[in-house]
Amino acid sequence: MLLPNKSFLVFSWIALVLIACSTNTNQGPTPALFDTKEEAEKAAKRFDCKGSHKMGDHWMPCENHSIHDTHNH
What we know:
Blueprint (H helix, E strand, L loop, with lengths): L5 H15 L16 H7 L8 E4 L2 E4 L12
Antiparallel strand pairs: 1-2
């Protein structure tokens, strides 16, 4: 019976832990422009604000645009 050597087992265990603990969720930045008022109001929670406002042909979260100047998005 052939058993893997100790270094192979250690390497395999470390690789498994690193893969399992990966925090990369492929999430990009939160979008700030939406096609509908409802989408913008739903996204407002992620900007720590309420409401939405019109910006050209799109909608943005928060009751006014000044709140966006304080967020890093």
